[in-house]
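Practice problem 4.
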């Protein structure tokens, strides 16, 4: 790169860093990592593994769990629903109250469970406590049948039946119905008037303002009409050029993104309770 191109690149990275670091990451959805199911059903290979990707698997769970888990995360991200991945330990140690799971500096209102067959009793109890406090637990696929031990398994099954049975407050859905179910819980979340799986969104609360980063992950320009669910009016920041444009008071906006371009939508100063 020449000096001018290097300076332009440094300016771009600096603008990104200024708005994507600091403040508070706002992410309402956590996906529970189903590693215990893989532990429970792992069968050692008969021959040395030469390639992890092309290895022979001796349990159907070794294939089903990674495929379903990856599909769940992709389905959410491709519908502009930001997610964090949490494990059982984080859930068990979390502060759970008022319909929220607080893990370090993150707060979640929804826990999504991919297909799984094993779950520790303590994690199942944490889920039940979360639902009782007003939170949402959504299961996509099979419910856990096994605990971490023979002694805990019956109690895990009882808890799952209570959560997801006829009178339970948990929610069961298909992969295709997952986004709609989450929108019921989070009606104020960002969504596009015209669906586009190549657009990714992340949200921060920085210096009293809501900061949304929208990225076009495709090689063609697009015009977006994001419904921000409130917190407007917005100012459009283009980190690639440094241009700043004050947008109209409309909640539904017209935003033009070049190929692989990312932009920021920044709200007026707001209370953290608006999230």
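Answer key:
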């Amino acid at each position: 790169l020449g000096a001018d191109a290097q300076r332009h690149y440094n300016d771009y990275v600096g603008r990104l860093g200024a708005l994507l670091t600091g403040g508070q990451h706002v992410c309402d959805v956590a996906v529970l990592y189903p590693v215990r199911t893989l532990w429970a059903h792992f069968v050692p290979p008969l021959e040395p593994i030469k390639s992890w990707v092309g290895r022979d698997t001796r349990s159907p769970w070794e294939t089903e769990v990674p495929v379903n888990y990856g599909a769940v995360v992709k389905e959410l991200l491709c519908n502009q629903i930001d997610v964090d991945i949490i494990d059982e330990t984080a859930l068990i140690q979390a502060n759970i109250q008022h319909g929220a799971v607080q893990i370090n500096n993150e707060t979640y209102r929804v826990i999504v469970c991919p297909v799984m067959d094993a779950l520790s009793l303590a994690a199942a109890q944490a889920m039940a406590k979360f639902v009782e406090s007003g939170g949402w637990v959504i299961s996509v696929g099979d419910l856990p049948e096994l605990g971490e031990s023979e002694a805990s398994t019956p109690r895990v099954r009882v808890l799952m039946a209570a959560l997801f049975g006829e009178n339970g407050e948990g929610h069961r859905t298909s992969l295709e119905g997952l986004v709609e179910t989450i929108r019921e819980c989070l009606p104020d979340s960002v969504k596009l008037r015209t669906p586009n799986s190549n657009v990714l969104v992340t949200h921060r609360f920085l210096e009293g303002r809501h900061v949304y980063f929208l990225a076009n992950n495709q090689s063609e320009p697009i015009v977006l009409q994001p419904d921000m669910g409130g917190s407007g009016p917005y100012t459009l920041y283009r980190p690639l050029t440094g241009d700043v444009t004050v947008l109209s008071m409309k909640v539904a906006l017209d935003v033009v993104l070049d190929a692989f371009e990312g932009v920021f939508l920044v709200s007026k100063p707001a209370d953290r309770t608006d999230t």
